[in-house]
Amino acid sequence: MRLPRFLLDLLRGALIGTAEIIPGVSGGTIALIVGVYTGLITSAGHLVRGAVRVVIDGVRGRGLARARAQFAQVRWMLLLPIAIGMGAALVIGAAILGPVIEDYPTQTRAVFAGLIAASIAVPMGMVSHWRPRHVVLAVVAAVSAFALTSIPGSVDADPALPLVFVAAAVAVCALVLPGVSGSFLLLTMGMYAPTIAAVNDRDLVYLGTFAFGAIVGLGLFVTGLQWLLEHRRDATLAVMTGLMVGSLRALWPWQTEDGGVLAPQGDILAILGLFLLGVAIVVALLIIERRLQARQPHDLVEGPK
What is the pTM for the complete model shown? Predict the structure, then answer.
């Protein structure tokens, strides 16, 4: 693998990691935008199955041949730089973006809304044939996401470790399912502020529990989604499109502290400009990705039909 590709995947991982600390923005959505979604899902599936085989076959004394076969199918040269980029972004972003989001909530939501609105074209364009049932699925998913993001955020508290485990297992779905924001799910469970604080304070007990919960949740969820992408691709992408549309509710710029919708106020033109900036960022990323694919064809976006 050439260095430019490694650096590009580091940047992709950093973008995904940054999205994971922003309520209302889905890491899975960013993975779709930058063209690594299918590659990550496929590799994660093999990695999870390999880890399961290590445990099961090891206990039964069957050796590690089947586990090694799964690990051999992991795209390590994609997975590792993205994981490194994500980890760095989570640490840096928690320290930098957290205060920015807190101090400028209206402006940051406007940018994030532009990002999501423009990125809806990604899963929509990946559906090979839009049929009436796909439209119905997209509408149901959009309504569900709208309802979910309309739930008022609960008050943050000092959570017990079992709750940290469960919250991580649920929130990690955002890495796999575009349109679902892991940070927003944490926010509704009252876990967002404690998690950001744990990252900034290097609370290893909290972070270790969170990581274990995320691994378990990923193991339970990723295999099913991988099967859907392989066998029900258009229907799954239609649902993803709907989820992204519905999730825009969480990013309406003018909101109360508990997420209630307010009428536009203040410098509306500036907010509109920030929204368009978010759109422009996604369009630029898509153009770069398409040019890169034209020069170096790969299957990061196009998965099994």
Answer: 0.66
